[in-house]
Amino acid sequence: MFHPIPYGPLTRLRMAPTFLGKPVREVSAYAFADLLIDTGPSSTASRLVEWCRGGPVRRVLLTHHHEDHIGGAAALQEELRVPILGPAGAVPIFAEGLRMPLYRRIVWRGQPRTFRAEPLGETVEGEGYRLRVIPTPGHAFSHVCFFEEGRRWLFSGDLYVHERVKLLRRIEDVWQHLDSLKRVLALEPELLICDHAGILEHAQGRLRRKIQYWEDLSGQARALREQGLGVEEIARRLLGREGLLTWASLGDFSKRNLIRGLLEGSPLPPA
Ligand SMILES: [Zn+2]
Fold first, then answer.
1. If both were cysteines, with which of 86, 189, 210, 258 could 203 make a disulfide (CB 3.0 to 4.6 Å apart)?
2. What is the 251 CA–ligand 1 centroid distance (Å)?
C-alpha cells in the first residue's frame, strides 16, 4: 500500500506491506517543502522513489534507525541522489546494516539496504522553514524529533504512536522515553505529526495524557509490588494477558517489558 494524502503544505505518505491484499502494519513518512521526513519500509521503496521523482524533495531526514522508517532511504539515494541526514548515533547502523529479529523481517517484508547518511546538526533550515533537531531517546537510542518553530509543528517519528502504549520492546527505555515526551511538551507544539497515528491537533493535551498514563501505571505497579506481586502478575492485572504479538516476537514485544521498565528504572532527575 502506498497512499499520499495532502494536508495543507504537508503530504502524508501512508505505506504498508500487504498480505492477501490487506495492509499489515502501517507507517507514514511526510513530505514538506523540499524535505522528506522518514522513508517507510523497504517493501514500498520503489513506489516512494516514483512519487518523489520529478518532485520537490531534495533532502531526506530520518528520525531513527528502525526498519519501518529507513526502508526507502537506499533506493532514494541510489536512484534520485538525494542527500540523507540522520541522528549521529545511527549513521554507522545505516552504513553497516540493521540487525533485525526474524519476526520484524517477516512483518516488514525484508530488511532495509545499507546507505550513507550525514549526521544531523542542531537545525535544518531551508526556504520558509527552520527545524530544530530535538534528541528524544527512549523508543530508540538514536531517536530525534524535528520541531518547526514558526508553525509549532512537531515531526515526532515514533515518540507518540498513541496515548496508551501497553507493549514495549526489551531494549526500549520507558523513563528516557518519558523524559523525551516532557522535553518536547516544553516546546509547546500544536500539531503532532506522528509516523503511525498521522497528523494530530491538540498536541500538548495528547502528550500530557500519554505522560500521565505511564506515570499512573508506574504508581499502580509499585503499589502491587509492595504487596509482593511479581512482574508477570502485575502486568496481567494492570494490562491484561499478553497477546499474539508477544508470542510471535518470542517475548521481545510485551506488556511485561513495560511493567519491568516502570518498576526497575527510576524517574530521571529534572533537567
Ligand atoms: Zn521505531
1. 189
2. 17
pLDDT tens digits, one per residue of 141-196: 999 999 999 999 999 999 999 999 999 998 899 999 999 999 999 999 999 999 99
226 alpha carbon to ligand 1 midpoint, in Å? 33
Give 268's DSSP letter.
Answer: P
Taking the centre of ligand 1 as the mean of its atom positions, its distance from the CA of residue 248, in whole angstroms, is: 18
CATH code for the domain of 118: 3.60.15.10
Smallest Cα–Cα separation from 76: which of 107, 45, 99? 45
Distance 80 CA to ligand 1 centre (A): 25
Find the domain containing 121 and state its range: 2-212
Total domains, the chain: 1
Q: How far is the CA of 224 from the centre of ligand 1 (A)?
A: 30
- Report pLDDT digits (tens) over 91-114: 999 999 877 777 777 766 677 899
Q: How far is CA 21 from CA 2, 50, 165, 217, in A?
A: 12, 21, 27, 38
Q: Does residue 235 lie in a domain region?
A: no
Q: How far is CA 221 from CA 69, 167, 213, 238, in A?
A: 32, 15, 12, 8
Beta strands 253-254 and 168-169 are antiparallel
CA 49 to the chain's CA centroid = 21
